[in-house]
Queue: 4 jobs
Job 1
Amino acid sequence: MTRRPRCPDWCAGGHRCGLGEHRSDPISITIPGAGTAVLTRVRAADGTDHADIRLSAALPADEPAARLRLAALLTHLRTLIGPPRAARRAA
Ligand SMILES: [Zn+2]
């Protein structure tokens, strides 16, 4: 008999829980005219946890300004998920 692992307290269960993966209810924020972010906590089948983030950000109509915004987004995302400052100095 195969026992299903117990869900963590934050798991939404139902269709969000299966194949060894657990997912929370998504949390979304919308800034009118700027964009929307949706964050979901996930525990993968290997037991590691991560945040699944979907981001929709408005871009300026002006192409150079849009590219500048995209570069800024990449910089901020890299800062957010990159290695901590101490690890960067040691490398
Ligand atoms: Zn679950």
Job 2
Amino acid sequence: MHKAYCSNCRERKEILDVEEGTAKNGRKLLKGKCVSCGEELVITLSGSGAGTDNGSGAGTDNGSDEGPPGNV
Ligand SMILES: [Zn+2]
């Protein structure tokens, strides 16, 4: 089961209808739909395996919490 960060749900979601594809730069990617809202999600694979998306997704989540107050 693949997961990706959904910008619509603002959290990591499981992906339905996963298809493999190739980006213009030759990288492998996976396309699918958010299990909750149906938003199209794309995971870019950096070549060595599917573990890469775990790190980047969690990092983005945490970072947005630490923004300067009063900015919004
Ligand atoms: Zn979603």
Job 3
Amino acid sequence: MLSPDKVVHLQEIGVLQEKVLAYMRRFWPAMQPYKTMLDKMLFEAGDEIPQYVFYICPICTNEFIYIQHNAAFGSCEFSCDHFPPKNVKGSTQALVCKSCNNKAGHEFDYVTKDFLVERALNMRIPGTVIATKVQIKDVKGWYHSEMTIDENGELMFSFLPDKNKKAVPLQAFMEKRLYKKDWTADITIPRTKLAKAEKAFIKSAYLTCFDQFGYDFIYSETGRHLRNVMEGKETYPYKNIPAFIFDDPEKMQLIPGTICRITHPQEWNVFAVAIPMADQHYSCLATVLIPGPDDWNQLTLLNELIDTEVDRQVSFTAIPPVMPKMP
Ligand SMILES: [Zn+2]
């Protein structure tokens, strides 16, 4: 039987029970091919195996929720995780263990917003704001400053965006109109932590595949490699994450589904997972390339095959989801 010290009552799990049950009902059929594995995980040899329903955290594949005779248990707390992250207006959710949810949130999910803002800044999208730091020669201290793109696409710099903030030396500099003379300043513009952004993209693509293909994806070779990438145990072999970014509405239509096979060029032999992201002033569809279930080496080959500088014809064909929609 389940070890009593490993389980907590479902009531203690921080998600609405109905929501948990809906998730479990949706994914339980997809767990059936793995039932022998689950039986071994849950019961001792020789135990009489009762009827049960089981959901396993798709990210760590260790923590679980389990229902037997209408009693529900979890190996830890579970919560709903947004993919892509909420900070880029992600609206799809997956039920994951709280530890995986918190870990991704602290370690890398927060960077997706920086990625979007930096892109909008480079494209001079009006309304874009990026937090910077400024240090002016002969003025004591450094200050939170801001760069914005105005309605004409011009770059504006604000030394003291928060007027209520106390910054005596800087305010003195402004009041004495010292900026009328020659002056120099160091401005620090934070760059997106790309290694973290890559993990966030991989996680969104991974959970999208789980949402559409269920546990067959999780237990595939590709699923295992992607978990290793998220845990930092291996690097993603293809150098461009995300691979393609579409922000022109006309070009967005080239992507006919959430998961597509790239049908041309055929030799790329890969799937594109579309990740919709939005900020206040900018939205796009970013794609992560995922190989077939046992085709991980294809990602290495792609480095030779795809030159993103070349504007070539790429065709996408939508792959219908295997999993039923959420009721
Ligand atoms: Zn987990």
Job 4
Amino acid sequence: MKGLVVIALFFCATGLAAAQDAAVPAAKATEAEPPPSACQLRLTKVAVFKPIPLLAGPGECGAVDVVLLEQVMLPDQAKVTVAPPATLRCAMAEAVALWLREDVAPAALQLGAPLRGLDNFDSYECRGRNRVHGATLSEHGRANALDVRALRLANGEVIGLTDVNVARGWREALRASTCARFSTVLGPGSDGRHEQHIHVDLAERRGGYKMCEWDVREPVKETAPQDGQNAAKLTEPVPLPRPRPVASVNGASPAKKMRWQRRW
Ligand SMILES: [Zn+2]
């Protein structure tokens, strides 16, 4: 009996020691974690995300204060899921969250259903612009850019941002608000590499110049005119004309255009 008590005490002590051992690294890890940035504290109110303390290399790639943006909360507390989650600098994640809350979600209601999802085509990726090896580092390599292909609505509809069958006026309004919010917006007509998705980033340029190159295209002539009610249907990709060297936006763009840097 006495032996049993000794054995029991031994295991209790061993278990306690193991628990203490387990607690030590956890405490160290907590100490090592940087406190949330001011940006992350703001982002907590409008998004669901995981902090990524540091993205480093290779080469020039990387960023500090990065988050994995999973969902954006709308003012009515409904959530918009970013799929797959986007790796972005916190400032860029915040810009995307506010864009979805203030511009995209109200616009989606005009198409007949609340916004529930955003298709992330690309976020952080260490590469040159347009995946050209040796080219100037893309803003994607700084976690400062997002490529968006489509939105998802609560009624199951998928809205392609470059889909010519989506009401033209709706796409023009979205382009205007998107170009007002981001410093670079590239879409169809920009360089031939953004025909089916929209690139947005927060690149900083001298003088605060912005690029807004997104042609809102018409359906091909054979297609019957669509009205605003049924225009939201995503259809098969329509063959597109060759990108024009100068985007024609009828002077509607709120942003200045720059021609000396066109590779993204
Ligand atoms: Zn891009």
